[in-house]
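Researcher: Here's the sequence for the chain we discussed earlier.
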Amino acid sequence: MKAVVLGSAAGGGFPQWNCRCANCTLAWSGDARAAWRTQSSLALISGEDCVLINASPDLGQQLRATKALWPLATRRSPISTVVLTSAEIDHVAGLSTLRERHAFRLLALAPVHAAIADNPLFAPLMAQRVAARGGEPFSATDEMQITLFAVPGKAPLYLEQGEPEAAAMDGEACGILVTGGASLAYVPGCAALTPDLTDWVSRADIVLFDGTLFDDDEMKRAGLGEKTGRRMGHVPMTGPGGSLAWLAALPASRKIYIHINNSNPVLIEGSRERRHVESEGIEIGHDGLEIAL
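Model: Thanks. This is the structure I predict for it:
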């Protein structure tokens, strides 16, 4: 078995289509230090079966770039199951790519299923909707089990009403634990670090974790938005309660940041911030990264 990082960027990708911040300007100019990235998604490959974790708006591009996900026959894709960790646009928009008469199981916690069911855009999908129970393993393939567990997060932006609780534990956001080979935890969105989260990811040999922002107010300082990372549902790498020291202390043999926002300076190879993260033994994920399980 193996995992393939199909996309390692946050919503909008890198460079972001409408942005010329300092990072994006380097990427648009073709600077080799600023590798382009698509929006976050992960493929778990077991023989001829693929379990897709999140369906990003860039899914078509990602499938064409990953030979293991090419069709096996006429109207037969390796994708047998799609798992959603949230109903955010950058995690579900790619479901529309899977509408051409392809049957698959769609696994998610109840709040995410509710958001999908209410959207007629997804009505054409030939998906068997499977409601996961938090903390209970699901047999995705003959050799792979997946467990969804709630993490602090919030409702998708398009469902927000008033001022939402950014770190609720009601299943709007979840992580997954993959077992069957080397164990892997995947948490692309998380608003706070809790003892329950630490317990789950401490069971994994490999941890891929939310690296959206380097510090909480970087987007405000750069004039890219008014919200902090935590208000958007993402714990920053650094600062009080940041994920870097927490991640470095986990027992996993590999720790990798994914879901990285275009504003985050760790995207730039050789930057001071990237060197700081790597000095703690943490990798910066990239599109196409393969991990043996």
